[in-house]
Amino acid sequence: MDEPGGTTTAPPRDQEPWLTCWSEQAQLRRWALSGSVVIVGRAPGADVVVADDPLVSRMHARLERTGGRWTVVDDGLSRNGTWVCGQRLTGRRVLHDRDTLRVGNTVLTFCAPDERDEPHTLVGEPLPLADALTPAQRAVVAALCRPLLAGAALPATNAQIAAELHLSVDAVKTHLRGVAHRWGLDHLPQNEKRARTAQLAVRLGSAAGH
């Protein structure tokens, strides 16, 4: 496990599972999972510290490695509950690659690359359609996410996207607003909207320009 509350910007070594979360500053945070028990909460002593969300309890949820699989448990630890892939957690649930955990207003994504060839069903809100984007929008989104796919903590700036695609910064902003509208993100604050756009693009494959 990283130091309590610590984050890394590179994928954990040896393909151990990890949790990711987008901060309000559009920074991707990562926590490598090791050992047998990982506590998620607002307390400084938690393994995964979510300090900036007042709806997260001091000790909110517990991840346990059981029989080679990670499970999540919320046995009344939290005041506001824990949600897995859009469903409120009751008891214990086995986690699968790319499952989402919502604690308070914070969404964590469980990543287990060794599972990616194993089919499983995700339950939750439907993802937007990647093919709903225009070719120009897909190119802008791919450029937005290129630093993330290379291991950086932040997506590309508008100026970097404009330079790569030979567009004006205003044109980049227009395309990103169009993507946010198509994906139903208009209601989010600007920084969160940008982070959510990049997150969805990676999940949908649009980050690779598909």
From TrEMBL:
The keyword Chloroplast does not apply. The keyword ATP-binding does not apply. It comes from the Bacteria. Pfam families: FHA. Keywords: Phosphoprotein. One of its GO terms (biological process) is regulation of DNA-templated transcription. Residues 38-89 form the FHA domain. InterPro entries: Cell_Proc_Reg/RNA_Proc, FHA_dom, Sig_transdc_resp-reg_C-effctor, SMAD_FHA_dom_sf, WH-like_DNA-bd_sf. One of its GO terms (molecular function) is DNA binding. SMART domains: FHA (SM00240). This is FHA domain-containing protein. The lineage of its organism: Bacteria, Bacillati, Actinomycetota, Actinomycetes, Frankiales.
